[in-house]
Design a protein that fits this description.
- The chain is mostly beta strands.
- The chain has no helices and 11 strands.
- The strands form 2 sheets. Strands 2, 4, 5, 6, 9, 10 and 11 form a 7-stranded mixed sheet that branches. A 4-stranded antiparallel sheet has the order 1-3-8-7, with no helix packed on it.
- A hairpin with a 6-residue loop joins strand 5 and strand 6.
- It is globular and about 40 Å long.
- The protein starts with a strand and ends with a strand.
């Protein structure tokens, strides 16, 4: 079992950048498929990005493609999301999620482990 703790959220102006981190406890993080999701007020949680355990595959929502980059440092048990060219519509609580099993990377229900979320607010 792994515990996930996000950090790095905050308030930023449109066009700015933030880097989110997701620190994982436990010795098996390197074998976890990981994802980032977000939930804006009044909206459902949605897929943002995902990385297979071996980093061979990465996926992005169309809305963030070309602006966000997912990466992981298995030696540090940490998942990252570099967010550039932020827009007001990126405002949301961002969650990291993980699962040791094969997952459909865009599907919320496939991830068993979730962090508590970190708020990202982009002002116009």
């Amino acid at each position: 079992q792994v515990q996930l703790v996000e950090s790095g959220g905050g308030l930023v102006q449109a066009g700015g950048s933030l880097r989110l981190s997701c620190a994982a406890s436990g010795p098996t993080f390197s074998r976890y498929n990981m994802g980032w999701f977000r939930q804006a007020p009044g909206k459902e949680r949605e897929f943002v990005s995902a990385s297979r355990w071996n980093s061979v595959g990465t996926w992005y929502a169309d809305s963030v493609k070309g602006r966000f980059t997912i990466s992981r440092d298995n030696a540090k048990n940490t998942l990252y999301l570099q967010m550039n060219s932020l827009k007001p519509e990126d405002t949301a609580v961002y969650y990291c999620a993980g699962d040791p099993s094969s997952v459909r990377v865009r599907m919320i229900e496939d991830y068993h482990y979730w962090g508590q979320g970190t708020q990202v607010t982009v002002s116009s």
